[in-house]
Amino acid sequence: MTLQEALKKGKFVITAEIAPPKGTDVADVIEIGKVLRHLVNAINVTDQQSSTMRLGSMAVCVLLQKLGADPIYQLTCRDRNRIALQSDLLSAHVLGLRNVLALTGDLPELGDHYQAKQVYDIDSVHLLQAIAKLNGGFDMAGSELKGRTDLFPGAVANPGADTEAAYELQLIKFEKKVNAGAKFFQTQALFDVGTLDRFMKRVSRFNVPVFAGIVPLKSAGMARFMNKNIPGIHVPEDLIQHMARADDKEITGIRIAGNLIRQFKGYCQGVHIMAIGWEKKVPAILNAAGL
User: Fold this and answer.
1) Which of 59, 65, 69, 179 could form a disulfide with 37 if both were Cys (CB 3.0 to 4.6 A apart)?
2) How many other β-carbons are positioned within 10 Å of the β-carbon of residue 78?
3) Is the model's pTM score more than 0.85?
């Protein structure tokens, strides 16, 4: 069942994520796609995540589509101006892609080409507005298209913002993205149901599906690194200690991820699994979650 079909039927949605290779060898991507295609409703393909140069999201989306998967084409504003962004959206539609996740994008200095010039001609809100215009048959300049797009746009949210000011800003951005046409949201990784519950109480009035982010822990060190270096992520100390004491880190990380999915299921409309190198373990995570 595709993403749009699952949402129309009110099903609990499961999405996962694939990072394109840094090169042209797509064997691993295809292998992962074959594992995930019948287990999840859609597969995100990241767009130069962490500002690291990789194979393009659009190309991998097309490969996944040929396997029978429903891809989500991630598109960031960091590397393209509005002309290139709109052109890529037209290209995605012509290639049969429909789901698009609009992102502003990480700063170039975070990646492997720190000398690269950032573009940021528009941000993710404006990109969502551009998608709405293209779907309506016009470009951002108001010129009529010869054939409109039929894209299904989504956006991201961070329920775990570190300060009250940052949290309120996230809520403001959420509303702007809804007004700009976002049809679904995928969140930053969450590790406690209280953070999700608090966020959902504030955004449920918009009646837009939210998929809670799930990142399986691989070690206590990974958890501490995320707490220290990734804004908006907070792994509770009890989970860190649980990982530190575990004899089998892999099984423990899978069980924690599965348990979080079980807890989150009553609060949101789906989950988004960002396995970060553990994509082939997504079946085990879903099994641990009873899905």
Assistant:
1) 69
2) 21
3) yes
For 123-172, list the strands marked E by DSSP: 152-157
Q: For 22-77, what is the HEC assignment?
A: CCCCCHHHHHHHHHHCCCCCEEEECCCHHHCCCCCHHHHHHHHHHCCCCEEEEEEC
Phi-psi region of 142 (alpha: psi -120 to 50; beta: other; left: phi over 0): left
Q: What angle do CA 223, 124, 53 make, to 5 degrees?
A: 60
Q: Give the torsion through C-alpha atoms of 182, 135, 67, 85, to 10 deg.
A: -80
**Structural domain for 159, as ranges:** 3-288
Among 182, 185, 201, which residue's Cα sits nearest to residue 193?
A: 201
For the domain that residue 47 is a member of, what is the CATH number?
3.20.20.220
Go through the chain and tell me how many residues it has. Answer: 291
Q: How many structural domains compose the chain? A: 1
Q: Which of 54, 128, 43 is nearest to 86 (CA)?
A: 128
Distance CA 252, CA 243 (A): 7
Model pLDDT for residues 259-276, shown as the tens digit of each residue: 999 999 999 999 999 999
